[in-house]
UniProtKB/TrEMBL annotation:
Keywords: Membrane, Transmembrane, Transmembrane helix. This is MFS transporter. Residues 13-399 form the Major facilitator superfamily (MFS) profile domain. It is a multi-pass membrane protein. The keyword ATP-binding does not apply. It is found in: Membrane. It comes from the Bacteria. The keyword Ribonucleoprotein does not apply. PROSITE patterns: MFS (PS50850).
Amino acid sequence: MTEKALERRRWIIVALVFFAIMLNYVDRQILALLKPTLEAEFRWSDGDYANMISAFQFAAAVAFLGTGWFIDRVGLRLGFALGVGIWSLAGMAHALVSTVGGFVASRVVLGAAESIGTPAAVKTAATYFAQKERSMALGIGNTAPNIGAIVTPLVIPALAVAFGWKAAFLVAGGLGLVWVAVWLMVRVEPVAADAVKPAPIKWLSLVRDRKTLAIAIAKVLSDQVWFFMLAWLPDLFHRMFGLPQGTVGLPIALVYGMAACGALTGGWLPTRMMAAGWSVNRARKVTMLIYALLILPVTGVLFVDSAWAAAGLLGLGLFAHQGFSTNVFALTTDVFPARAVGSTIGIAAFCGNMWSIVLIQLAAVSLAHGYGYGPLLAICSCSYLLALGFVQLLIPVIVPVADDGSDALVIAH
């Protein structure tokens, strides 16, 4: 096969990962968008809803401890297919339940299975792309959650109105099963050949590594913002601006459209800096600083009267989040060999998801006591500068590992 054909195949892999992560976020966001309908039908409280979201986050967090290892141990190809297949079936199971307990159980399985998406996506970039190309591949892949978050509010309410809320869960899950079949048919030659093989990972070495701690703290401080927004944005627009379910999808689509642009620029900007001769260390950290500063104005949402002005400020915030997040993932592939990336991201994502439960529950408490969304938006605005401070403290200089896997033995044996 020619080099050009191999290059095309690698970008087919990016497209497949993009679609899988997009479906991942469609499946998890359906509940938030159908909250008013399901709340009326099943008489849920805000506390019931927060508990469902927290159950999803907790299951995903615990599973991250195993799914990163699972991807590294079983291999990317089979591991990713199993994860998408299970989460698709769990998503479809929502259509078969009618109690709070039933929804919680479905969310638990969905969250556990969907946790495979993040380590699999980052490991894909480390496996199929050289270091200089990974930021762009990750940037494209990291737009997927935003596209999913755009498509979902535009399509799901209309689908639910036309065919009932159960159809929304069944269609999204069915598309995931189609993805599994296509993924198993496509074969691409990896850049890091050792990364696609099952690999024993010495977890104690990873946990003790200051670089793992830096990435974990960055995930904690950035993930809490993302998951808070994902869970509560529809309610924020409904509560602050009186938008009903039929129209709330439009400003939310704008928010996540801007977030998608942030993911793309998050991959493009450091790539251009490195092409201009900047070191990986300088390019990565300056890029992260830019995004950390861009989210500071998000608290201005409290002082605007227009839903579209609020969407612009929230969109700028998630633009910054996705640019920052893309570079946290890229930082992982900078400093760890490809065969250990899945486990490292799994550990960091566990920490991020567990802490996100705190902010999700804090939102319910803040609303119940009349404080509104102000305290939560203030937390969002300062999280990224704090995250970058910890990265600088724990990784003063980013020293990229070799693309050929020569550093892998340090961790793997």
